[in-house]
Amino acid sequence: MTALALIMLTLVGVGGSIVALTGDPKRQAVTLSVYGLLLTVLFMVLQAPDVALSQFAVGSAIVPLMVLLTVRITSGRRR
């Protein structure tokens, strides 16, 4: 395993911990998007461009957007 792959694995581990420890759902959606970008770079380093493209579309854009929309809808119902 190359040094770049080990660095990326470490960053992905730290990023996942940050996402899990973030309390505010809005901030967690943003950190989830950054985590998706870290995973995308990791997959590119591991020479899996098809998986990286899917991760970029789903993990960095669609899932955080769905989380933000859900938070907005549920916070509107609480009032």
- Structural category is mainly alpha
Order of helices and strands: HHH
Low-confidence stretches: none
Largest sheet: none
Fraction in beta strands = under 5%
Number of strands: 0
Q: Radius of gyration, Cα only, in angstroms?
A: 14 Å
Helix content: over 70%
N/C terminus separation? 52 Å
Pfam families: MbhD
Protein name: MrpA C-terminal/MbhD domain-containing protein
Main location: membrane
GO cellular component, one term: plasma membrane
Key structural traits:
single chain; 79 residues; mainly alpha
What does this structure look like?
This protein is mainly α and 79 residues long. The chain has one domain (3-78). Helix content is 89%, strand content 0%. It contains 3 helices and no strands. Helix 1 runs antiparallel to helix 2 (25-45) and helix 2 packs antiparallel against helix 3. The longest helix is centred in the C-terminal third of the chain and has 30 residues, at 49-78. It is elongated. The chain starts with a helix and ends with a helix. The relative contact order is 0.14. The mean pLDDT is 91.
Mind sketching the topology for me?
Blueprint: H1 3-21, H2 25-45, H3 49-78
Helix pairs in contact: 1-2, 2-3
Membrane topology: Multi-pass membrane protein
Subcellular location: Cell membrane
InterPro entries: MrpA_C/MbhD
